[in-house]
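$ ./design --mode recover --in tokens.txt
reading tokens...
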């Protein structure tokens, strides 16, 4: 069946979309434990970019899992499939000329590598939210860690499932950083990359 599927080329190209938008498109991928600050930093950075006129969109674990990935759980296999789809969705958004900010636990190196390969290395910026388990557990905004400690949640990342730290992230944000500092560090890093040159 696979052999009977053919690539359809569009009339409007990514390059034309980027030219019309006035900036490049790529993926800013936030990985880290639940509660490490991924959504907060991604959304605050998006706000800053949006206010400056960039075309942006946030893909967030909880939201994606409520819709397109609602059939997936937290086994290693389901997380891989979750991440595979995130990679493919990001690729579509990038092709549409959008700056994508994705916030996912994405605990396995091979899954993150898969996303990087799917969107292309030059379209991928990895942000490691390096907040300790202790601090995430202290925050425990959703009460998930408390439930995991009581054995009410299986496969909880950091407690009963692994988190493989990125070996060579583009940016590492430590828990001492304020939200504003973290956003500025990332913004300064991507500022040049946003510029579309004909
Ligand atoms: N077992 C377990 N482990 C980790 N996280 C859990 C779990 N169960 C539910 N949640 C909630 O799901 C959010 C993580 O989903 P992701 O799609 O980002 O996970 S993954 O990339 O497939 O590992 C995560 O969101 P964040 O807190 O924003 O990280 C949690 O709200
Ligand atoms: N840099 C930071 N300093 C202090 N608290 C933070 C910081 N970033 C996020 N938080 C807080 O930590 C909690 C979890 O953040 P969240 O963005 O939901 O994490 P994640 O998306 O990784 O689960 C929230 O209450 C948020 O306000």
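writing sequence...
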């Amino acid at each position: 069946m696979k052999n009977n599927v053919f690539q359809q080329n569009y009339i409007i190209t990514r390059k034309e979309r980027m030219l019309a938008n006035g900036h490049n498109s790529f993926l800013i991928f936030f990985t880290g434990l639940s509660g490490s600050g991924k959504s907060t930093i991604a959304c605050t950075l998006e706000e800053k970019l949006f206010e400056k006129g960039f075309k942006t969109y946030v893909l967030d674990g909880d939201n994606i899992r409520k819709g397109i990935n609602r059939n997936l759980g937290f086994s290693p296999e389901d997380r891989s499939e979750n991440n595979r789809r995130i990679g493919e969705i990001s690729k579509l958004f990038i092709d549409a000329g959008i700056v994508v900010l994705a916030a996912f636990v994405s605990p396995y190196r091979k899954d993150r590598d898969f996303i990087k390969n799917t969107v292309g290395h030059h379209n991928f910026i990895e942000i490691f939210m390096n907040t300790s388990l202790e601090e995430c557990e202290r925050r425990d905004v959703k009460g998930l860690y408390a439930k995991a400690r009581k054995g009410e949640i299986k496969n909880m990342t950091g407690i009963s499932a692994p988190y493989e730290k990125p070996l060579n992230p583009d940016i590492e944000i430590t828990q001492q950083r304020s939200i504003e500092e973290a956003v500025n560090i990332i913004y300064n890093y991507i500022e040049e990359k946003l510029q579309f040159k004909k």
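exit 0
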